Amino acid sequence: MEILTTMDAQQKALTSFQVDAFNKKLSEGREVSNVLDKDDFLKILITQLTHQDPTEPMKDKEFIAQMAQFSSLEQMTNMAGEFGKLARSLESGQAMGLLGRQVEIIRGDEVIAGTVEAVKGKEFPQLLVNGTYYGFDEVERVSM
Questions:
Q1: Under a CB-based contact definition with an 8 Å cutoff, are residues 115 and 101 in contact?
Q2: What pLDDT digit, counting tens, does each position of 55-81 carry?
Q3: Model pTM greater than 0.70?
Q4: What is the rounded CA–CA span in Å between residue 15 and residue 123?
Q5: Does residue 78 form part of some domain?
Q6: Quick one: how far is CA 107 from the chain centroid?
Q7: Residue 49 lies in a domain
Q8: How many domains does the chain have?
Q9: Which of 55, 57, 76, 116 has the lowest CB atom count within 10 Å?
Q10: Is residue 118 included in any domain, yes or no?
């Protein structure tokens, strides 16, 4: 049995096609982001520390400044998460306040009018109108 160590033009083209198809499949559903998050910042810091010149290590002040920036970034990320929770909680309270009220709901080109009979869901509240549940964000108008 002979093992081939080189490929002819047809095999190269086929392999190239398969690699391109595989890479395209891998990248499907992934979004490229131009925004750095805390994980990216930490990776940059670790890379910087690992590849620094041992004869001229990072100055203490520079290191402390970068750690402070990382700490600030972490706190801002945590605050953004908490603000998101607060917004969802407020939305849930607003949905509960619609019980028994007349609403108009827009779904595509259709306008559904009726009384809010029930509310379910905490994070993404839904309103029961005319026997069907609709998202709170679909409410266009509220009246008595």
A1: yes
A2: 766 666 777 777 788 788 888 888 998
A3: no
A4: 48
A5: yes
A6: 25
A7: no
A8: 1
A9: 55
A10: yes
